[in-house]
Write a structure and sequence with these properties.
The complex is a heterodimer of chains A (473) and B (245).
Chain A: H1 7-15, H2 18-42, H3 44-63, H4 65-78, E1 82-86, H5 89-102, E2 107-111, H6 114-118, H7 121-127, E3 131-134, H8 137-145, H9 161-171, H10 180-195, E4 200-203, E5 207-209, E6 215-219, H11 223-230, E7 233-239, E8 243-244, H12 247-262, E9 269-273, E10 287-293, H13 316-320, H14 322-327, H15 338-349, H16 351-354, H17 366-370, H18 377-391, H19 397-410, H20 413-426, E11 431-432, E12 435-436, H21 446-449, E13 452-453, H22 460-472
Chain B: E1 2-5, H1 9-14, H2 16-28, E2 32-34, H3 44-48, H4 52-65, E3 72-74, H5 77-90, H6 95-106, E4 108-110, H7 111-118, E5 131-135, H8 138-143, H9 148-155, E6 161-163, H10 178-181, H11 183-200, E7 204-207, H12 210-223, E8 228-231, H13 232-236
Parallel strand pairs in B: 1-2, 1-3, 3-4, 5-6, 5-7, 7-8
The chains are: A alpha/beta (473), B alpha/beta (245).
The complex binds iron/sulfur cluster.
Chain lengths: 473, 245
Amino acid sequence: MHIEPSFRKRYHKALSDTAMLKAVKNGTGRLRGQRATAIEAVGAERWMEFRNRAEAIRMHVIQHLDQYLEQLIDNVLKKGGHVCLAKTGEEAVQYISELAKKKNAKSILKSKSMVSEEIHLNPALEKQGCKVIESDLGEWIIQLAGETPSHIIAPAMHKNRFQVADLFNAVSDEKIPTEIADLCGFARKYLREKFLGIDIGITGCNFALADSGAITLCTNEGNARIISALSPTLVTIMGMERILPGLEELTVMLSLLARSATGQKLTVYNTLSTGVRKAEELDGPQEFHLVIVDNGRSKQLGTKYEKILNCIRCGSCLNACPVYRNIGGHAYGWVYPGPIGAVLSPLYQGMDKYGELAYATTLCGACTFACPVKIPLHDMLYALRNDKVELEKKGELAEDIAYKGWSATFASMSRYRFSIRMARRFQFPLVKAEKIAFGPPPISDWLKHRDMPALPNKFFHEIWPEMNKDRKE
Amino acid sequence: MKASLFVTCIADMMYADVGKSVVQVLRRNGVELDFPEGQTCCGQPAFSSGYYKETAIVAKKMIEVFENSEKVVIPSGSCAAMIHHGYPILFENDPKWKKRAEEFVAKTYEFSQFIVDILGITDVGATFSKKVTYHSSCHMSRILGVEEQPKILLKNVKGIDFIDLPFAYDCCGFGGTFSMKMADISAAIVEEKVDNIISTGAEVLAGSDLTCLMNIGGRLSRRGVPIKVMHLAQVLDQGGGKNAY
Ligand code: SF4
């Protein structure tokens, strides 16, 4: 999918796509409601305790990441697995591509991995002749559409059932009805056939447990666990921060993740799998590769953005975000949309390319309050803006000048009062019935949709003396 | 009780009537108010655009202006939040100013917070026989943590028919310069807010942040919806007896 480099163009395109926006509003509305109900059932106070505990667990892991990574790698190797620690996305892709070549793989089945989107794995594998099929419904839909995910946990949230039926019809001999049940039925039938004869299976990873080397996958469709059971060669890709010490921490995170993401007490399938098939076991891979991807993550350690590594990819911040709800995920331009994306994209991919996303927020704080692991997302967005302006000196020129002028004016009462008197005097060409309905930039866009009150005949500081004069009399 | 009014730049230049109502409501309820010379703006626009250095210049001035005040009252949730949350960030690496900023923070209150928490008053003696709904602005409710106080005050107004706003805590889309920089996204967001407000059947939308009210009111006006937008202080100023000048 071609991604337009300008954020402005991307969101304008989004704003005009009414079908997409309707689907996203429905989808986020549903998830938001389900989450609220789940939290109500737990009770606000206990929910806060949950969040505090989860935050503490995640912070502990991030602060001891090297130690836990070592332990995880040790355990995976001990249980017969292979490990690739990839510094960049390219390294990870190269490792997996070579493995596919070595295995002479024709058919690769995938499930649940945002990291694989991040590193552009599918196109690389397809280029060397592998057929890669996404096995989860949402992922498969967008694969058929040639698109990228638009939501962290519901990648095809932006499509309605009629669009999905069209996509399915293109790969089916019979005509598929547009009812949800029929669509799911078709997908199940079509995909299940593909499970047989897989050469390589690829999954993501919700959490890896350091003390056992186990990989945890949380899904509602169960395809990921079929892949991890049936693939002769299994590859799991994980972001390097997705570690937990062990089962005890996992229980906290699982219930928090499910409630935050979909309002469920637990996701339907929570699979833990460790290493390769043992002699007495009936299923499981003969070969297991864990690909741990850094790709910009370790750069955040020890910085003011470190907490961003606490993220468990639940998607709550997306659903809470008024901007996401009104432009959808693709407008953000990289794999992770919404508030988490607005922080991650500039941090991982560079301020040059994605710095603008720090301004794609009203700073309302809804994301921070939704986040189960208490990442101060909106504070990070402030900090990113400050970095952009002060460290990188990349404020827009007009803005640099405007704020220099602003501070010089507003640091002095007389200059401030003088300037607003001038504004009042010169606003007359714009004023009609005490309102301003059109004007020059930077308010021109604002005035496309709303009126602005005109500056009144008297400012408050001009009324104040009168209020006191009367009082003394 | 003595308190100083920090009227905010928006109230000063665009909504003098709000400042007037603030003064009247507070005076009627026994507050001796002054209006320290030299005050301009809390610094929010520059701060939220990332211009911390420029913000600090103005913030220092405000700290000086209110140095001798016992308490400071601000009729704006987001400006109060700016001082409470933003000033400590601004002066993180400047111990001298950090301390002065913290002293400022400790005595600064948003209007309804001051009335309910400091004055201990929940009924200001207003009468207003209208259907009213209330928009909870983001910075006031989430960042400052002041949620219930304005609603307590409103519900105790004589004759009022208070209706809860669906999704009251959803942002109105203002977001300072966001509403200019990304005006079209902002417009889509305020449209949802306006639809929710209309759905309540209210005659009046009240709020505690003039910029949010300007945004919502601006959209209502453009759509020609006859719902009146009022600051909380203006509602609390209704029918409260003679001017308390
Ligand atoms: S930042 Fe928080 S709310 Fe957003 S996806 Fe990550 S864990 Fe979930």
